[in-house]
Amino acid sequence: NLVDQPAATGPAMPRHLPFLDVLRGIAILCVFLHHALGAAAGYYSQPWNGDFPDFFANNTYWPLFPLTIGNCGVAIFFVISGFCIHLSHVRSRNETWRSFAVKRFFRIYPPYLLALLVFYLSWPWRTYSLSSPGWRHQFWSHFSLTHNLDPGTAYGINGSFWSIAVESQLYLIYPLLLGIVSLLGWRFSLALLFLVEVAIRMSLIPGINIFDSLALSPLGFWFSWALGAFIAHCYLHNRMPGYKRS
User: Fold this and answer.
1) Given Cys at both, which of 73, 175, 195, 219 links 30, Cβ 3.0 to 4.6 Å?
2) Considering only 57-61, 167-171, 203-207, which range has the smallest mean pLDDT?
3) In sequence order, what are the beta bridge partners of 48?
4) pTM assigned to the model
5) 3-class DSSP state for residue 229?
6) Would you say the C-alpha torsion 125, 130, 134, 137 has a positive or negative sign?
7) Rounded distance between C-alpha atoms, residue 3 and residue 116, angstroms
8) Are strands 48-49 and 52-53 parallel, antiparallel or unpaired?
9) How confident is the model at residue 51 (pLDDT cuts 50, 70, 90)?
Protein backbone atom coordinates (compact mmCIF):
# COMPACT_ATOMS: atom_id res chain seq x y z
CA ASN A 1 0.00 0.00 0.00
CA LEU A 2 1.45 3.35 -1.02
CA VAL A 3 -0.15 5.25 1.83
CA ASP A 4 -0.60 3.25 5.00
CA GLN A 5 2.05 0.69 5.75
CA PRO A 6 5.81 1.08 6.13
CA ALA A 7 8.24 -1.49 4.87
CA ALA A 8 8.03 -4.68 6.87
CA THR A 9 11.76 -5.28 6.88
CA GLY A 10 14.82 -3.19 7.66
CA PRO A 11 16.31 -1.58 10.75
CA ALA A 12 14.08 -0.18 13.45
CA MET A 13 13.00 3.42 12.99
CA PRO A 14 14.59 5.81 15.51
CA ARG A 15 12.30 8.18 17.39
CA HIS A 16 14.62 11.17 16.99
CA LEU A 17 15.67 12.24 13.50
CA PRO A 18 18.65 14.65 13.55
CA PHE A 19 18.10 15.91 10.01
CA LEU A 20 14.80 17.45 11.13
CA ASP A 21 16.69 19.59 13.65
CA VAL A 22 18.93 20.84 10.85
CA LEU A 23 15.93 21.74 8.69
CA ARG A 24 14.21 23.49 11.61
CA GLY A 25 17.38 25.50 12.23
CA ILE A 26 17.54 26.55 8.57
CA ALA A 27 13.85 27.51 8.58
CA ILE A 28 14.21 29.56 11.78
CA LEU A 29 17.25 31.38 10.39
CA CYS A 30 15.46 32.15 7.10
CA VAL A 31 12.39 33.56 8.85
CA PHE A 32 14.50 35.55 11.33
CA LEU A 33 16.63 37.15 8.60
CA HIS A 34 13.55 37.93 6.52
CA HIS A 35 11.86 39.75 9.40
CA ALA A 36 15.09 41.46 10.42
CA LEU A 37 15.41 42.76 6.86
CA GLY A 38 11.88 44.15 6.95
CA ALA A 39 12.43 45.79 10.33
CA ALA A 40 15.70 47.39 9.22
CA ALA A 41 14.75 48.48 5.70
CA GLY A 42 11.04 49.15 6.19
CA TYR A 43 9.91 46.67 3.55
CA TYR A 44 10.39 42.97 2.96
CA SER A 45 11.00 42.74 -0.78
CA GLN A 46 12.75 44.63 -3.53
CA PRO A 47 10.52 47.22 -5.24
CA TRP A 48 9.27 46.11 -8.63
CA ASN A 49 9.46 47.88 -11.97
CA GLY A 50 6.84 46.20 -14.09
CA ASP A 51 7.48 42.44 -14.10
CA PHE A 52 11.03 42.60 -12.69
CA PRO A 53 12.63 43.67 -9.41
CA ASP A 54 13.95 47.24 -9.57
CA PHE A 55 17.53 46.85 -8.34
CA PHE A 56 18.17 50.54 -8.92
CA ALA A 57 15.38 51.75 -6.64
CA ASN A 58 17.64 51.52 -3.59
CA ASN A 59 21.32 50.89 -4.23
CA THR A 60 22.02 50.11 -0.57
CA TYR A 61 19.29 47.47 -0.50
CA TRP A 62 19.93 45.28 -3.53
CA PRO A 63 22.92 43.37 -2.05
CA LEU A 64 20.48 42.11 0.59
CA PHE A 65 18.06 40.85 -2.05
CA PRO A 66 18.75 37.14 -1.23
CA LEU A 67 17.28 37.75 2.22
CA THR A 68 13.93 38.61 0.65
CA ILE A 69 13.38 34.91 -0.07
CA GLY A 70 13.72 34.15 3.63
CA ASN A 71 9.97 33.63 3.83
CA CYS A 72 10.67 30.27 2.20
CA GLY A 73 11.46 29.21 5.75
CA VAL A 74 7.70 29.11 6.34
CA ALA A 75 7.31 26.54 3.57
CA ILE A 76 10.12 24.50 5.14
CA PHE A 77 8.20 24.44 8.42
CA PHE A 78 5.14 23.09 6.61
CA VAL A 79 7.26 20.42 4.90
CA ILE A 80 8.54 19.35 8.32
CA SER A 81 5.00 19.35 9.68
CA GLY A 82 3.74 17.13 6.86
CA PHE A 83 6.65 14.76 7.42
CA CYS A 84 6.07 14.49 11.19
CA ILE A 85 2.28 14.11 10.98
CA HIS A 86 2.39 11.43 8.29
CA LEU A 87 5.20 9.58 10.04
CA SER A 88 3.35 9.65 13.37
CA HIS A 89 0.03 8.59 11.84
CA VAL A 90 1.47 5.66 9.91
CA ARG A 91 3.45 4.49 12.94
CA SER A 92 0.18 4.45 14.92
CA ARG A 93 -1.32 1.76 12.72
CA ASN A 94 -4.49 1.37 14.78
CA GLU A 95 -5.17 5.11 15.08
CA THR A 96 -8.60 6.18 13.85
CA TRP A 97 -9.27 9.56 12.30
CA ARG A 98 -11.23 10.49 15.41
CA SER A 99 -8.30 9.76 17.71
CA PHE A 100 -6.00 11.58 15.28
CA ALA A 101 -8.22 14.68 15.43
CA VAL A 102 -8.58 14.55 19.23
CA LYS A 103 -4.83 14.17 19.74
CA ARG A 104 -4.00 17.08 17.43
CA PHE A 105 -6.72 19.27 18.96
CA PHE A 106 -5.43 18.91 22.51
CA ARG A 107 -1.84 19.35 21.42
CA ILE A 108 -2.46 22.61 19.60
CA TYR A 109 -5.66 24.33 20.69
CA PRO A 110 -5.32 24.75 24.51
CA PRO A 111 -1.92 26.55 24.34
CA TYR A 112 -3.12 28.50 21.30
CA LEU A 113 -6.27 29.61 23.13
CA LEU A 114 -4.21 30.71 26.15
CA ALA A 115 -1.90 32.76 23.90
CA LEU A 116 -4.91 34.22 22.09
CA LEU A 117 -6.49 35.38 25.36
CA VAL A 118 -3.21 36.89 26.55
CA PHE A 119 -2.72 38.91 23.38
CA TYR A 120 -6.40 39.87 23.11
CA LEU A 121 -7.02 40.88 26.73
CA SER A 122 -3.71 42.06 28.12
CA TRP A 123 -1.86 45.35 27.93
CA PRO A 124 0.08 46.57 25.94
CA TRP A 125 -1.48 44.72 23.00
CA ARG A 126 -5.06 45.69 23.90
CA THR A 127 -5.18 49.13 22.28
CA TYR A 128 -8.85 48.83 21.30
CA SER A 129 -12.29 48.56 22.88
CA LEU A 130 -13.42 45.03 23.71
CA SER A 131 -16.95 46.09 22.81
CA SER A 132 -15.95 47.09 19.28
CA PRO A 133 -17.76 44.91 16.68
CA GLY A 134 -14.62 44.81 14.57
CA TRP A 135 -12.51 43.43 17.36
CA ARG A 136 -15.20 40.98 18.43
CA HIS A 137 -15.04 39.71 14.86
CA GLN A 138 -11.25 39.50 15.17
CA PHE A 139 -11.58 37.43 18.34
CA TRP A 140 -14.19 34.98 17.06
CA SER A 141 -12.39 34.44 13.77
CA HIS A 142 -9.21 33.69 15.72
CA PHE A 143 -11.13 31.55 18.21
CA SER A 144 -12.47 29.42 15.34
CA LEU A 145 -9.06 29.32 13.61
CA THR A 146 -10.49 30.79 10.41
CA HIS A 147 -8.87 34.24 10.59
CA ASN A 148 -6.32 33.33 7.91
CA LEU A 149 -9.11 33.17 5.31
CA ASP A 150 -9.90 36.90 5.57
CA PRO A 151 -7.19 39.47 4.75
CA GLY A 152 -8.77 41.78 7.32
CA THR A 153 -8.21 39.34 10.18
CA ALA A 154 -5.24 37.28 9.00
CA TYR A 155 -2.68 39.39 10.86
CA GLY A 156 -4.96 40.71 13.59
CA ILE A 157 -4.29 40.28 17.34
CA ASN A 158 -0.96 38.56 16.66
CA GLY A 159 0.61 38.50 13.22
CA SER A 160 2.04 34.99 13.65
CA PHE A 161 -1.26 33.27 14.49
CA TRP A 162 -2.18 32.81 10.83
CA SER A 163 0.26 29.89 10.53
CA ILE A 164 -1.49 28.03 13.37
CA ALA A 165 -4.80 28.34 11.53
CA VAL A 166 -3.24 27.04 8.31
CA GLU A 167 -1.63 24.16 10.19
CA SER A 168 -4.95 23.18 11.78
CA GLN A 169 -6.74 23.29 8.43
CA LEU A 170 -4.03 21.14 6.85
CA TYR A 171 -4.72 18.56 9.55
CA LEU A 172 -8.41 18.66 8.62
CA ILE A 173 -7.73 17.94 4.95
CA TYR A 174 -5.07 15.31 5.64
CA PRO A 175 -7.61 12.48 5.05
CA LEU A 176 -8.48 14.14 1.74
CA LEU A 177 -4.80 14.16 0.79
CA LEU A 178 -4.52 10.44 1.48
CA GLY A 179 -7.68 9.86 -0.56
CA ILE A 180 -6.19 11.72 -3.52
CA VAL A 181 -2.95 9.76 -3.15
CA SER A 182 -4.84 6.46 -3.10
CA LEU A 183 -6.45 7.40 -6.42
CA LEU A 184 -3.59 9.11 -8.25
CA GLY A 185 -0.45 7.99 -6.45
CA TRP A 186 2.05 10.26 -4.77
CA ARG A 187 3.72 11.71 -7.86
CA PHE A 188 0.56 12.75 -9.70
CA SER A 189 -0.92 14.09 -6.47
CA LEU A 190 2.17 16.17 -5.78
CA ALA A 191 2.18 17.48 -9.35
CA LEU A 192 -1.44 18.57 -8.99
CA LEU A 193 -0.87 20.27 -5.64
CA PHE A 194 2.30 21.90 -6.97
CA LEU A 195 0.32 23.53 -9.78
CA VAL A 196 -2.29 24.76 -7.29
CA GLU A 197 0.30 26.24 -4.94
CA VAL A 198 2.31 27.86 -7.74
CA ALA A 199 -0.86 29.37 -9.25
CA ILE A 200 -1.73 30.90 -5.89
CA ARG A 201 1.81 32.12 -5.21
CA MET A 202 2.47 33.54 -8.67
CA SER A 203 -1.09 34.57 -9.60
CA LEU A 204 -0.70 32.80 -12.93
CA ILE A 205 -4.31 33.42 -13.93
CA PRO A 206 -4.77 37.18 -14.52
CA GLY A 207 -7.93 38.89 -13.38
CA ILE A 208 -8.92 36.31 -10.74
CA ASN A 209 -8.47 38.07 -7.43
CA ILE A 210 -9.45 34.97 -5.47
CA PHE A 211 -5.80 33.92 -5.51
CA ASP A 212 -4.97 36.84 -3.23
CA SER A 213 -7.29 35.56 -0.51
CA LEU A 214 -6.07 31.99 -0.97
CA ALA A 215 -2.43 32.87 -0.30
CA LEU A 216 -2.82 32.22 3.44
CA SER A 217 -5.27 29.35 3.03
CA PRO A 218 -4.23 25.70 3.38
CA LEU A 219 -4.29 25.44 -0.43
CA GLY A 220 -1.42 27.92 -0.51
CA PHE A 221 0.78 25.49 1.44
CA TRP A 222 -0.77 22.14 0.60
CA PHE A 223 2.01 21.09 -1.76
CA SER A 224 4.68 21.98 0.81
CA TRP A 225 2.86 19.98 3.49
CA ALA A 226 2.17 17.05 1.15
CA LEU A 227 5.81 17.03 0.07
CA GLY A 228 6.75 16.45 3.70
CA ALA A 229 4.25 13.59 3.89
CA PHE A 230 5.74 12.07 0.73
CA ILE A 231 9.25 12.30 2.18
CA ALA A 232 7.93 10.51 5.27
CA HIS A 233 6.47 7.84 2.98
CA CYS A 234 9.87 7.38 1.35
CA TYR A 235 11.54 7.28 4.75
CA LEU A 236 9.11 4.64 6.01
CA HIS A 237 9.89 2.50 2.98
CA ASN A 238 13.63 3.20 3.21
CA ARG A 239 13.61 4.92 -0.17
CA MET A 240 15.28 8.22 0.69
CA PRO A 241 18.35 8.61 -1.58
CA GLY A 242 21.51 9.07 0.45
CA TYR A 243 19.74 8.46 3.77
CA LYS A 244 19.42 5.05 5.36
CA ARG A 245 17.71 4.36 8.66
CA SER A 246 20.23 3.38 11.29
Assistant:
1) 73
2) 203-207
3) 53
4) 0.78
5) helix
6) positive
7) 36
8) antiparallel
9) low
